[in-house]
Amino acid sequence: MIPRHARAMTIVQSLVGLLLVLTPALLIWQHFGMTRVFELSPRQSYGATVTDDRHENGKSVASLVRANDALVMRCDLRAGYAWPFCKLQFHLGQDGKGVDLGRFDSVTFDMRYSGESGRKIRLHLTNFEPEFSTVGDWNSQRYNSVEFDAPAQATFTIPVNVVRTADWWITAHNVPLEKTYTRLDNVTAVEISTGSVPSGQSITIEVRSIQFRGKWISDTTLLTWLVGAWIGCGLLGLSLSLLHVRSSLSASNARVELLDAINKALQLEARDLASQAHTDPLTGALNRQGLREVLMKRLHVAGHVDEEMAVVFMDLDHFKRINDQHGHDAGDEVLRRFAAVIRGEVRSSDKLVRWGGEEFLLLCPETDVAHAMTMLDKLRAAFATQDWPHGLRITSSFGLTSLKPEEDIGAAIKRADGALYRAKANGRNRVEIA
Ligand SMILES: Nc1nc2c(ncn2[C@@H]2O[C@H](COP(=O)(O)OP(=O)(O)OP(=O)(O)O)[C@@H](O)[C@H]2O)c(=O)[nH]1
To answer: How far apart are CA 122 and CA 128, in angstroms?
Structure first.
């Protein structure tokens, strides 16, 4: 099964791949295409009319001829009004509802101009804004305009941003400075007007089409989207990588913890095995290997102990009878309790060793013979009061000697063994000192 983070990473990689393809494709498309056009011509339904300066007490006369593929305005421009004019109007909306032309970048004209002197045209875009405009009052609409020389060729283009709000309109409506910008989001009329040319002449303006052109998505918007998408992808990839690092870290921590636990278990097991190798399984006393270990720690290389130590050899009395009369299991239980009683009476620094069968060796460091005798008397008393299996009475014989500093331990054990022999010979349940 594919891990979750690997699947997420694959998705991010696919997204990056998609963006790698989409980014240049969208930029090229935006640059060369993605164009939207709003056209004014005899072919569409926006009503076209002409008007002149006669309602301003002027004398110019405009007339409109509709041909199949053109609207022809004929203007007899006469002196009378201060700024004589004729104009061709396209009505884009009524009751304050117009068309948003602010999304277009340029205007392409297909028109012919003919006049006797001067070649100037004005483009007006009236924008209805409730803050300043009232329905029915033409002059209340923001008057955006530009005048330019009519080119000789029929088709030409001007940028939309050359159109400016007319000063007279700003003054007439006391427009605050911060609102004097060109606004074209609700254009109710597009007008082609005669420019500032001498009066007393006939002018013909033949309009085939006026096209407002723009991009469906502006380059700034597209770039913002693309940069946003790339940053999003990068952040997604980064967070996934961090998550991956975190999860691998916790997985490796878990592995380390598991190994640690196994290690500890193995150490415990090794310690158990080591202590098993040094301990008699029946009584828990040290075995001879255990004794060797203890001595190794205490002896010099030469085999001497540098302190006085009591060495006691002990042997249960008539132990064979117990086995014979009550069975081997009862004998085992007696041995177990025998060792337990001794351990309960001696110091923790004293070492009890099962020498073999029912023979035990007790090493009591820093103990002289007198103190050892006292300790063995206590021990014999404890045996006497102990609750033994089958109501038995258990006694032991002891051979005691003192290991002098620098003395060989083997010799001391031999001496204690001899003393034990004497204790047995002298009637058992007693201590003999060598
Ligand atoms: N149940 C049991 N018996 C053991 C064990 N090791 C040795 N024995 C027995 O202990 C007995 C020792 O007998 P003996 O050496 O004759 O000594 P004893 O009967 O104690 O007589 P004395 O030492 O002279 O008092 C033998 O019968 C062994 O089989 C053991 O681990 N468990």
So the answer is: 19
